[in-house]
Amino acid sequence: MSNLKLVRRLAARILKVGESRIWIDPEEVERASMAISREDVKRLIHDGVITKRPASTPSRGRARIRKERKKRGRRRGPGSRKGPRFDEKDLWVSRIRAQRKFLRTLKEKGVISRKTYRKLYALAKGGMFRSVSHLRLYLQEHGLLKSGEEDGSRT
Questions:
Q1: 89 close to 64: Cβ distance less than 8 angstroms
Q2: Is the pLDDT of residue 7 over 70?
Q3: Cα 100 to Cα 116: distance, rounded to the nearest angstrom
Q4: What is the mean pLDDT of residues 80-109?
Q5: Which of 2, 66, 79, 89 is 20 to 30 A distant from 46 in Cα terms?
Q6: Four-way CATH pick for 88-148: 1.10.10.10, 3.30.70.20, 1.10.1200.60, 1.20.1050.10
């Protein structure tokens, strides 16, 4: 029986596969254990006593679970994303600078009062406005522009 180790090794070499992929017919074990040369093993392969098993493929089970979770919106956070990432702070800085510049021009042109400027400045700092156009819309909706003047953004 210990000779099966040799037979398995020789068969693996002949068939160009790993030893784990060698199948020896359980009913022909006695005959297989008698083989001592490569020629004997080749004969056993020819007779169908020794065959090579098909290569095993990785299970798709985990992939299916992952796909299902992605369909539900999981596993899609910033850590899973590839490609260019945006620095949140840089976005904030550019947005707030634009809003403050807009407010400053309105105050200097006298379109809004100092009190309104201060109030809007604080709101902008608190993240109230998405963009300059959102700020402009807020001014129009709340009637904060002096004496029906336009917002003065077109210079």
A1: no
A2: yes
A3: 13
A4: 93
A5: 2
A6: 1.10.1200.60
